[in-house]
Amino acid sequence: MSFTDALTIIGGLTVALYLLRLAWRCWCGFRQYVLSEHWQVDLRTYGQWAVVTGATSGIGKAYASELARRGLDVVLVSRSEEKLRMLAKEIKEEYGRKTRIIRVDFTGSYSIYPAIAEELRGLEIGILVNNVGMTCSDHFSYFLEIPEQKITQVINCNMLSVPQMTRLVLPHMVERGTGLIINISSQVGIRPQPLLALYSATKIFVTYFSQCLHAEYKSKGITVQVKDAAASQCVVPCMVSTNMTNNLKVNCFVKSASGFAREALNTVSHSSYTSGCLSHALQNAALTVLLPDWLRMSTFLIRKLRNHPKVTNYEGSVCKE
Ligand SMILES: NC(=O)c1ccc[n+]([C@@H]2O[C@H](COP(=O)([O-])OP(=O)(O)OC[C@H]3O[C@@H](n4cnc5c(N)ncnc54)[C@H](OP(=O)(O)O)[C@@H]3O)[C@@H](O)[C@H]2O)c1
């Protein structure tokens, strides 16, 4: 065999491998975002109750309502008692499910968790949605512009809450041999985003924690079950119209919170790491190509973002002001 023949074979095999990988990815995406609409797992099989943090608005509220619609009783955890009571009433009236409310401010340190543990005692918790999250500021800002106390608040709320809440529910899930923990990360938790330094860093924490947790616990206690025993799912949305994004107009890029939660819950058991919906999966893929890290991290782009004539908000959305 000549040298040219050998090179042709190696080239052919490489192309075939890439095509196979592409075909596999397309199939996984199709299954996760299209087939899942008709091929849903019955979420009640995880357990009677779902716990949702940051449940009173946006994505958390949408998850809580969707979980209730799918037959679970819901524990709503947030900081405003009035909003919690209103949502609990709404869920009871609309879906006839039981609710419990826990008023807590997640910017607090580890001392807030024993009280939450007390409230959750005795409940069969099948699903935990670690959704609560906050940004440092409503515009792109340099790290030193963030007030000192905000640093601890954002870290406590976005990071500490995730392993602490997990620690409260996971032992019983492992004992029962079933459970699901959904962690809401972000597109800016996949790649670093300058001018959102702290927020972006807290979200990569969520992503890594979620992926490692899934690897550690997916097979714990599996005996006859088809689905994972205590599985963890990391959700990495792009833009969703909520208070955090100044309730942006919904379009093919920006999802409504309810639409997002419905589609994201369809992906349960199809993927442990998901963009949540097809539109965001395509945007994530496009951003990887169109906005490579060298460009995202460049001084040029940082200045451009910073000097945008309008105030720019979280994840690049433009505020209405
Ligand atoms: N919106 C997006 O485009 C987007 C994209 C990617 C990722 N995410 C992530 O999705 C999650 C939800 O975001 P969202 O857009 O739905 O936000 P949101 O509309 O601002 O809602 C946040 C929820 O968390 C509660 N909350 C905030 N700070 C809290 C605290 N210190 N203690 C207790 N509860 C607190 C809020 O309660 P109150 O009602 O009392 O304020 C509210 O219920 C976050 O983790 C965020 O990082 C959002």
TrEMBL record:
Compartment(s) where it occurs, according to its Swiss-Prot or TrEMBL record: Endoplasmic reticulum
Transmembrane regions listed in the UniProt entry: 6-24
SUPFAM superfamilies: NAD(P)-binding Rossmann-fold domains (SSF51735)
Broad class of where this protein is predominantly found: endoplasmic reticulum
GO terms under biological process: steroid biosynthetic process
GO molecular function, one term: oxidoreductase activity
UniProt keyword Lipid metabolism, yes or no: yes
Gene3D superfamilies recorded: NAD(P)-binding Rossmann-like Domain
Keywords, ordered alphabetically: Lipid biosynthesis, Lipid metabolism, Membrane, NADP, Oxidoreductase, Steroid biosynthesis, Transmembrane, Transmembrane helix
GO cellular component, as recorded: endoplasmic reticulum
Family (UniProt): Belongs to the short-chain dehydrogenases/reductases (SDR) family.
Record's protein name: Hydroxysteroid (20-beta) dehydrogenase 2 isoform X1
Gene: hsd20b2
